[in-house]
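Deviation from plan, reported transparently: nicotinamide-adenine-dinucleotide complex.
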Amino acid sequence: MSDVAAIFETMSYGPAPEADAAARAWLAAHGARFGLYINGQWVAPVGAAATFDCRNPATGEHLAAIAIAGPADVDAAVAAAAAAAPAWAKRRGHERARVLYALARLVQKSSRVLAVLESLDNGKPIRETRDIDVPLVARHFYHHAGWAQLLAQEAPQMLPLGVVGQVIPWNFPLLMLAWKLAPALACGNTVVLKPAEFTSLTALYFAELCSEAGVPPGVVNIVTGAAETGQALVDHPVVAKIAFTGSTEVGRMIRSRTAGSGKRLSLELGGKSPFIVLEDADLDGAVEGLIDAIWFNQGEVCCAGSRLLVEESVAARLLEKIKARLANFRIGNPLDKCIDMGAIVDPIQRERIDRLVGQAESEGGQVWRAPLGFPAAGSYYPPTLITHLGSANTAWREEIFGPVLAVMSFRSVAEAQQLANNSRYGLSATIWSENINRALELANAVKAGVVWINCTNQFDAACPFGGIKESGYGREGGLLGLQEYLKPPREWLAETTVRLPAGELRSGASGGDPIDRTAKQYIGGRQMRPDGGETRLVATHDGRAAGRVSVGNRKDIRDAVEAACGAESWAKATAHLRAQILYFIAENLSIRAREFKARLVDLTGVTAAAARREVAASIERLFSYAAWADKFEGAVHRPPARQLVLSVHEPLGVIGVVCPDALPLLGLISLIAPVIALGNRCVAVPSERYPLLATDFYQVLDTSDLPGGVVNIVTGASESLAKTLAEHDQLDGLWYHGTAAGSRLIEAASIGNLKRTWVNDGHARDWWSPQSGEGRAFLAAASQVKTIWLPYGD
Ligand code: NAD
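Because the crystal trials were delayed, the predicted structure below was used instead.
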């Protein structure tokens, strides 16, 4: 054997620990005790001055005592942010850009100490904090410095929201801080941020960078603490938006606590993401991908590829390769540059992982733990595989948030797709295949916010990241991420809405008309009698009987949602076809314009001219969305690595629309048209006061080639039908135009499947104006973005 080969064969790794002196000196300079960063200064918490322990998970060593912010401290932080907000918002974009740029530079200059602190605090390998977390943090601030500079041109007139509350998890402490702070600041908001209780140190270090970078006092405030501190921030009445990253369980709680408050909300929640290996995949590449998918950051990654789906023909070979690769893994001191996996963030989390693995085993899963040694003192867990799973097994369904891979095989791509999508989560998916056509087809079919093809766990500041279903809503990164922190100058008319009473008949008035004019429900493209068999008379504006209408109930809503779910092929219809059908609807409405005008006059009592105007505006709105159908485009991003990243708009799915009483025809069409233009199906609850406009309108739909089930109309008591829709777990979104109390109810009732809600908080919208009554805001609410990553080159 040659000398080199001999050395190669016998050489064993020696530890190469990163020096931690600078990080420890910083801790010592603070006496290993931290207060809160409020209004640009360190302050002690008011009152009891309680602290919690910050420990190194790799050793259990105490690192620092961290202040727990109580409600009074959160109040002080919000007050500081509110005081700083007007001046920060008024600054020119260039001035904000300079501050963000200074932060990016300072992160780079402090990169070593930040990387070490993060590893000490979280347990993740220095290799990752040094090469992934901290460089991405800097990139985020650079990218958003650019947005601050360009915002006035790219989003003219848009305004910041004011004070933003941000709550982040422990798995990527500094990176999550950057994802939250950079866009908020770029847009001119001020922030109160709460880091996770296990990992506050890098946020506290960053606070000092803010002072150094010239962030004005009060623009960034950092309050440490656990759930109660987060809750005080979430509940604070001055906070205009909550941006949350964390577990689905807490996300639900936050949705319900902010219901009806008018606060904007974005939720980046948990996941159970599929990692799909097709038989034509480069298996060695797929193994390296899996290492990054589930053993990166000890598997404590929201978008970890924790469910391996492998084509049966290559399953045994792939498992063998994974085991062989893991046999050479190194677990140990996170500061050692030679290790692959560090420590689990806290013994509590390690026990949770172990409990879930035990449960999976007791349910029939076969558990294989990589036969590796690791230090006894710290909070370590070996890479683990679980096979022989059924789809009901805990390991297949639940987010374990640790280095545990659940494995299943499949026989056809259709089965892979079905297994991948059979999850309440929808954060990400990875596809490994040498056949780009198959990979892209699958990418199109999987239900996830992010799809990686032949790569995994890729992130960039320019590329939207976020989930669907119970993985949350809202996107971080790029222009889409910025939109979460901006509002239009005028969204609502000043007045608030009330529901109009159903309308009273003059005494003695009856149906009068010899023809039976009971309007039925419109479900699955057919007129259906209401389930309860109940109908009621509808009054004209002057108390005559205009006709009868069905009174829908829970069962009618269920049937309508089912019909809408069954019309899924609409999502696959070409945008061109959807546009043609919208034009056709407009044309048919136009033919019956006189009839609709007369109906409006009769029911609402408006003048003939006003009614004519409403019908004309409704036809124009249909034209608008026919035009939009093939023009609401995604984007292509070019992150620093060699990848093409596509942001594709996909329909949200089935959307409920609860219509306003005002302008009953224009209101209805303004809500239905954007929904169907983008390939969604809808269940509409028309104005309770004027339902006959909607029941007349379905006759127009019937003659316009719209497939059955794409639009369903259920008449009845708006508020109770709205609540039923909010509680329905097969609905993906719900738009509500009604009262403030109704808005609160809808948001609170939406938490079952975390459907996306869009409510008016009791405000009236100006349906006449194209700026307020149509356009991108409606299209954005009717769609979700899928980000598809495609690497290129060898
Ligand atoms: P967690 O939900 O327990 O905590 C997250 C944050 O919320 C922490 O700062 C915590 O103190 C705070 N919090 C807890 N209860 C609260 C309450 N009632 N009100 C307000 N704030 C409260 O989650 P975690 O254990 O820190 O993090 C792990 C979870 O985060 C996983 O489910 C993971 O998937 C998810 N995560 C998601 C993403 C994403 O982008 N989708 C990214 C990272 C982590």
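The CA atoms of residues 312 and 411 lie 6 Å apart. We consider this an acceptable substitute for the interim report.
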